[in-house]
Fold these 2 entries.
Entry 1:
Amino acid sequence: MAVHRYWRLLAEHNELGSNYGFGEIEMRESIGGADVTGSGTASDSSHLDAGSTAANCFDNNLTNKWISNGKTYPQWVKYDFGSGSEKDIAQIQVQPRPDTYYRETPNHFYFQYSDDDSAWTTSITIETTWTSDYRSQRFPATPQLSVFQNLSQVEYQEPALIKVSQNLSQVEYQEPALIKVSQLLAQIEYRDTSSRTNLDAVLQKTIYRNASLDAYLLDHYEKNVDLDALLQALKTKGSSLDAILTGGAVSGGGLFFCHG
């Protein structure tokens, strides 16, 4: 993303109650990083009284809270990092209102940013539930994608990959420069770029069927599949995925796609 001066949580809905409320709020520039609030200025759309302002959300006191004065839209908690101290927020941690009115905490809200305190852009829409132990929850500041639902948008972080099984954890999503599955496979060591497979079609079917790739392979070919060996066979034989699987060319140890 990019750095912005103003960030806010805009309430949309809560489970019950005549007000909205938040406990402690932390903002981080990296996943699991340090809270970068503290030197800026907190404000709110409204507060119930002098003891329930937005400043309570950024004071590191887990017993304090912000309480809005009613639920008339819009109700929000805002943090101004100040000129020259703009931040690129990657994660927020939110504590619900820490008392018996915890269900007044918004369970549907927006995390937004602005550069002028006037025009706001939603970074992420958050829907969640809160529990009576007032447990904090962490949320990424941008939407996260599922590997099998978004394989057409996958790009690997490292240019030279050794094994699929060793590198699936290194997947990240890049926009707007997206790489198709056929281009992605060309980046894998076992893939012979001169031969083409129908793996794209298999993956597309798994996406539209809302099913996992392993379940599809087991259901369609009735065997466990070692994906590393499969890709090696594609390189060696120059065959299609269907021909290799139906011919029994791959099985055994390594990375299995097993169902059930």
Entry 2:
Amino acid sequence: MEYRARHSSGEWRWLTSHDVVFARNPEGLVTQILGSAQDITDRKRMEEALGESVASYRTLAENLPGIVYRSFPDGRSMLFFNDMLRNITGYTSEELTSQGFSTIEPLILSGDREQVIDAVRDAVHERKPLRLRIV
């Protein structure tokens, strides 16, 4: 169980507690509990900061005027698409996934597809930003 408790300084600290019944009386009522508590305040702060960072990233990605995506290292399977995917392709990420697509690759003109795939793969491999101009 996770809960907050006030420190003598007045600060609220997060704790996690693990408790088990240690002893019961002849009627079966609990008479002793064995437990331990650990301060997890730093972890909770990091979780909060991570949540804020994710929200900030999503806000940025959703307000850029192009498709923003995040892929697995193979450069082909996508973890995230922003909403511009729909504006540009007419598909939501859910629609692409339900059709068996894990990328926008099938939507790319066949004559351009290999060039785009190579550029994405190179950018992922070199850990560099990728900028493609679609005309």
